[in-house]
Amino acid sequence: MQKVDLQQPFPILEFDETREAILEPTNLIKAVEMPEHVVPCFFQDVISRLVQEHGARVIKSLKSEYGTNPVYELVFEGKKLGVYHPGIGGPMAAGTLEEVIAIGGRKFVACGGAGVLDREIPVGHVLVPVAAVRDEGTSYHYLPPGREVEPSGEAVAAIEKTLQESEVPYNLIKTWTTDAFYRETRGKVQLRKSEGCQAVEMEAATFFAVAKFRGITFGQILYGGDDVSGGDWDHRSWTTHSVRDKLFLLAAQACLSL
Fold this sequence. Notes:
Low-confidence stretches: none
Mean pLDDT: 96
Strand content: 25-35%
Strand order of the largest sheet: 5-9-8-6-10
Number of strands: 10
Helix content: 25-40%
Order of helices and strands: HEHEEEHEEEHEHEHEH
Radius of gyration: 18 Å
Distance between the termini: 41 Å
Number of helices: 7
Shape: globular
Structural class: alpha/beta
C-alpha cells in the first residue's frame, strides 16, 4: 500500500480523498425495497403522528447505542415516501444519512428548525439554505477544507417551486452549522452575521457534504426558531410551533417532485 502523507498543522485539515473507507455502509447494511424519495424529519412529534394517523410503517430499523431508529414508508399523495429521524448533530446526521443511502434512498429534502441570527425573522418563518458555513467537523471528512458548502441546486429549485405554488413566504439563506450550541458566543454570532448568515443549526453543512460525496440529491427546509441574534437568548416557544406539520408536508411535496 502506497504511503500518503496527509499530515497538516491541524487534524481537521487532513482530508483523505480515498473513496473507500475501512467501514463502508453498503458492506454493513443490506439494501431493502424502499422509496428513493426520503424526508429526514427532525420532528419526532410529526413522525409519531405519521405512524398513528397515516399508517407509516417500518421498513428498516437502524441501530446504534442510542437504540433503534426506524426508517418508515408511507404513501403521500399517491406516491411512496421514506421518512426517518436523522438524529441531532453532524456525526449522527451523517451516519444515519449514509445508512439510508445504503438501503436505497437517493433524493432527500430534510425538514427542521434553526436558531435565527436576525431577530426580525419571525418564529415559524420558512428558511431555505443555499449555503452552509462549515463550522463543524464531519464535513471535513467528506470534502476538502473550505469555508462553505451548498445543497443540490435541483433540490433548492424543487423546494422553491413548492413554496411558491403553496404561496408560502420564505427566505433563501446562508446558515451557520456548528457542533457546539453551548459555544454560540456573541463574538461568533457577530462574525457569522458579518458573512451573511441568518440562521444557526447543527447539521446542514454535514448533510450537504455527505450528499456531494455520495452523489445524491439533497436540500433542506428550516423554520425560524429561537433567537440567538446576539442579545439575550429568546426561546420563543419554537419547539411547539404549529408550522412543524406544514413544513413536513412541504418537504414531502418538494422531495416527491424531484
